[in-house]
Amino acid sequence: MLFGKLSQNEAVVEKVEFAPNRLQSTVRFEVAPEKVAAAITEAEKEGLDFIGLFHSHPAPAAPSSIDVKYMKLWGDALWLILSSTDGNLTAHQLMDDTVKEATLRIE
Ligand SMILES: [Zn+2]
Hints:
Helix content is 19%, strand content 36%. By secondary structure, the chain is α+β, with helices and mostly antiparallel strands. The longest helix is centred in the middle third of the chain and has 13 residues, at 33-45. The radius of gyration is 13 Å and the shape is globular. The mean pLDDT is 93. It binds zinc ion. Residues 55, 57, 64, 67, 81 line the site of zinc ion.
């Protein structure tokens, strides 16, 4: 999970909170809701916004159909996806029911 500062057109990640994949799968992931809630509560105490989620794919770094399904539940969260096959890292966001790629800047 990614936390930091959100402004109108920019999300700056300041904190990364890792969570175990309770599916223990290499192709699907699921995080225990209590872990998500605890991480969000902790970040809010630190004055940080929830920015989005990071995960990897053994495939291209584009949201899968399952990702898109869950993107609809996470509102405007950014989804960072790393391809373990070609090393590409992308960020996507659901806007007006359409998946759009965001520009990533790594400093
Ligand atoms: Zn995915």
